[in-house]
Amino acid sequence: MIEIENKKVKQLVKYYETIWALGSSLSLMGWDNETYMPENASNDRGNANSKLSLLIQKHMTSKSFLRKIEDASKENLNDTESAVVRVLKRSAKNYSCLPKRFIEEESKLLSKSQVVWRNAKVSNNFKEFEPYLEKVVNLNIRKAEFLDKSKSPYDVLLDLYEEGLTQVDVNRMFGEIKNPLSNLIMQISSKNPKLSDLTNEKYDKESMIRLNNKVLDLLGFDRLRQRMDVSSHPFSQTVSKNDQRITTRYKDNNFKESILATIHEFGHSSYEREIDSNLNYTPLDAGVSLGIHESQSRFWENQVARSRAFCNVNHNLLKSELSFLSKYNSEDVYRYFNEVKPGFIRVEADELTYNMHIILRYEIERDLINQKISVKEIPQVWNEGIDRLLGIKVPSDSLGCLQDIHWSMGSIGYFPTYSIGTLFGAQIKHNFEKEFGSLEEYINNSKYGEIASYLKEKIHKYGSIYKPNDLVRKSFNQDISSSYFLDYAKKKYSQIYDL
Ligand code: MG
Is the full-model pTM beyond 0.90? Predict the structure, then answer.
């Protein structure tokens, strides 16, 4: 790992420590907000949040700091040092290119549009949300123009979440998987597979908590630096390198949701835990992008936990807390973990159909920003798309285009990163196997530490030093490609469903 030695960059990093501390405090408050905060504290918390955020903005846009970044950028820098400059320039730009008036308008609109979206979803009334979404779309187009007039607005928005990503990349990747995956899903549906009885088996919450913790211990969760709590939507939050929080959730049946969410968040959390200590408190002390982050969670969830080896070797462990499993063998659990069933809700979707939700969202938001379709056409485009890709008829907008919160929060350009993570997760497995042989063998022998070391060496330790594409080229000598996921999916599901 290359260290930071240049004096000017050292100074920058020193100044940044205050921003880091404010960010760390906001993270902890954000985690608390979703887990233990008393309900009536939300206004006070909102207040404290906005004051701290303003302080960060003040530091990030201070003239002397911007001058320091500029000065440092003219030095002869090594990879780590120039990455400090790159990352700081990116965040400073997002703060300083947007006029104050615009930021005020944005925050007013977004707090209102989220409330309207929530009501529209409950009352299944897209018309109610329509004028607000129109404003959000226009606002995003204007935002993109403020940030970089020379690029297509949707490319500017994509870059906010996945540095360097463009529509050309996403069109290619999603174009390659859209029809083959949809065909695979249709082939499975046409066989009318019997759904697993395991979905309806009720579990005892205390046992499930114990099981999730046993699984975390098995995978290498570090109790001195990580903890798990409960929230309505599972998430992972970094307070600092040595303070990683994850959450999961408990219903009373369908135990795979709880265990797979736990393992998914473990993947996110391990990424940030294993960043090289030299990057502590620097702007590089975070996962480099949403897509690369999601590849880490999806790798543990899909490539490890949904494997036959994992279900097989851990059957007794699962049975030790879930007594109903004595009626089922490990093959039943494997099929239950990998059940493909076209459904309306993205967050409940399986490994295959999930991508169809994302591809459709992507096409719609891309066409909205490129002004190829209008907001009022969304329900029709969504319903036709779901019918075409998954072969099911959407019964209501609440179960259709209104289900996801992202657009109401102003997040356009975010959705593609979910599937990019899924695709890259499969690519990592391919590369692991090229070097070390079957991943299933490692899982069979519970060598999770060795799998984790591989991820650390190839991805984690670098933090944000390399842009997503550069990181993938450096570590794997490849670009992110959809072919690995497609091969993996065809092979796995043809076997499960006897196609
Ligand atoms: Mg995730």
Answer: yes
